[in-house]
Amino acid sequence: MGNMHEHRIGLTCGENRYLQAGDGPPLLLLHGMGVATCANSHDLLIPHLAARFRVLAPDLLGFGLGTRQVEAGPTFDLILDQLREFMDRLGLAQVHLVGHSLGGWLGGLLAYQSPQRVQRLVMLSSAGLNREPAPGVGAKLQASREQLRGLVRGWLHDPGRLSPAELERVVEGMYAAAAAPGAPGSLDPLLAQMQAPAVRERYMLHRRLPYIGVPTLMLWGEHDPLDPYPTWSAQFDALAGDMHRSGKPWAPPGARFAKLPCGHHPQWELPQQTAGLIG
Q1: Residue 139: per-residue pLDDT
Q2: Contact between residue 84 and residue 17 where contact means Cβ atoms under 8 Å apart
Q3: What confidence tier does 2 reach under pLDDT thresholds 50, 70, 90?
Q4: Which string of DSSP letters, residue by residue, matches the chain?
Q5: Arithmetic mean of pLDDT, 150-157
């Protein structure tokens, strides 16, 4: 892992594992959804960010290699509360916050609820704008490297961008999370919130976006199928990159926009370019 180190900390809802690398302003890096998803989803991105930031990448509550079985959770509210507790315990009054997919959704909610804790927000292929759950979000996985390898290749716009070693690093991180004790069923409470339309609507970002005042970058892959990114990619050039003028103007006031020639996982396909846009 080079200068990336793994740490564990006991919090109210259980043990939280996190990765740390680099020096500089603190950057909180949040991963996406899935029983095989964890902080190691950012293994290819973290070294590029660590040159400029103190990167802290936690497993979200109920994910990864920390406590997987959480009483009455994980839920959106418990995850957000644990993120604030994590910051409190590490003495992080304010952070640069970068969130991928579910992590971007949570980042938007945190910036809305606790704006004083977020210096800057980067929503990377963010969820929370798509009214319908992403296809396969609740799919059951076998703890099989072969299955995970096939899934990763299928999620990439250009699988050739990952070297064999990089692909195996991504797969090993996913395998460790999927095979962790307590992993099966660990995300069921959160999935239930995502899949019940009335409950999902309570946490969607649309009504909150006008009130998110922190500087925000919305960054996505132009081949990402998640709404609104197909619309944004199609309209990007005609609107000179200002998605506030789009038919789906779902962004905080003053947000900046950027897209990359990849799919839903810029942090895998184009980690150096992604880090460069993050700053």
Answers
A1: 72
A2: no
A3: very low
A4: -TT-EEEEEEETTEEEEEEEE--SSEEEEE--SSTT--GGGGTTTHHHHTTTSEEEEEPPTTSTTS---BTTB--HHHHHHHHHHHHHHTT-SSEEEEEETHHHHHHHHHHHH-GGGEEEEEEES--SS-SSPPTTTT----S-HHHHHHHHHHH-S-GGGS-HHHHHHHHHHHHHHHTSTT-TTTTHHHHHHHHSHHHHHHH-STTTGGG--S-EEEEEETT--STTHHHHHHHTTTTTT-GGGSSS--S-TT-EEEEESS-S-HHHHSHHHHHHHH-
A5: 94
What's the average model confidence in pLDDT over 64-83?
97
- Segment 114-127 shows an average pLDDT of 98
- Chain centre to alpha carbon of residue 266: 11
> Each residue of 149-175: b (16+ CB within 10 Å) or e?
bebbeeebbeeeebeeeebebbbebbb
Identify the burial level of 96 via C-beta atoms within 10 angstroms of its C-beta, where 0-12 means exposed, 13-18 middle and 19 or more buried.
buried
Q: In this predicted structure, what is the pLDDT of residue 179?
A: 95
Angle at 277 between CA 103 and CA 231, to 5 degrees: 65
* Cα radius of gyration rounded to whole Å, the chain: 17
Residues in contact with 172: Cβ distance below 8 Å, sequence separation at least 6, in sequence order: 40, 145
Paired residues of 96 in beta bridges: 27, 120
CA distances from 180 to 58, 171, 192, 253 (A): 16, 14, 21, 41
Maximal C-alpha separation, the chain: 50
